[in-house]
Amino acid sequence: MTNVKYPITKKHCCAWYSLVKPVEVWLVFYLFIRRFLNNAGWGIKMEKDFWLERWEREETGFHQNEINPYLPQYWQKLHLAYGSEVFVPLCGKSRDMLWLRKQGHSVLGVELSAIAVQAFFKENGYTPHHVISEKFDHCETNGTRILCGDFFDLGKDDLAKVSAVYDRASLVALPPGMRERYARHLLSILPPATQILLITFDYLQPEMPGPPFAVSAGEVEALYREHAEIRLLAQLDVLAQNPRFQERGLSRLQENIFLLTLHN
Ligand SMILES: C[S@@+](CC[C@H](N)C(=O)[O-])C[C@H]1O[C@@H](n2cnc3c(N)ncnc32)[C@H](O)[C@@H]1O
User: What is the C-alpha separation between 146 and 121, in angstroms, rounded?
Assistant: First the structure.
């Protein structure tokens, strides 16, 4: 038996190259799309454990020790009556609730993590009283009530007295599929004519995995336009003030502030 050798000719090389080149292009394209979808949170189910574990591990970089500066700056645009009830979804232990209370509003928050709820009251020197219902542990003191439990378990009755919503780091905390579910549920339980002050982040999603996720003005339109009048109050470039996002690779970061008014 003779050993047959197949010399690799220039013709073979060209044939291989023409096959490999499109494969490389497709591979790069595939990796880009995969990264984009991963960063954007498509296919990620952010189950309750994700947040409960973050609170247990004290990974709460989203918490601000100061009052969010946009709140005092834009809140007066709502022209809310003294004493109106303000709903703070996915409230964490946000100190913004203290500011809202100081303006004379009663405050209603909802938060999954008991650690966050206890920390809010303890760190601010309050001793809440508790009422346990089927779905929530109601913790209340001095005009501030936090329902410890799942936002998606809230019903219309829970929000019957609400006149306004303050959404900071709530919509943007969720991956895309959950954002749709969140907006749908919120709209289904809020009273007519409720106003929503909404603060979002917008950046190039492939540059960083969420949360916080990028939520464009177009997405806010798509989520709410059928049910609300939408005003973009401000669009601010804030990368320079956010070194932690620069370190995570962002080349652009905007914060958008919206005022939504639900239809009657
Ligand atoms: C990014 S943090 C923002 C907290 C707060 N809005 C702030 O500005 O500090 C999102 C919060 O939502 C809570 N959360 C997530 N999913 C929730 C749900 N389904 N129901 C209630 N709270 C939820 C998390 O535990 C976490 O505290």
Answer: 10
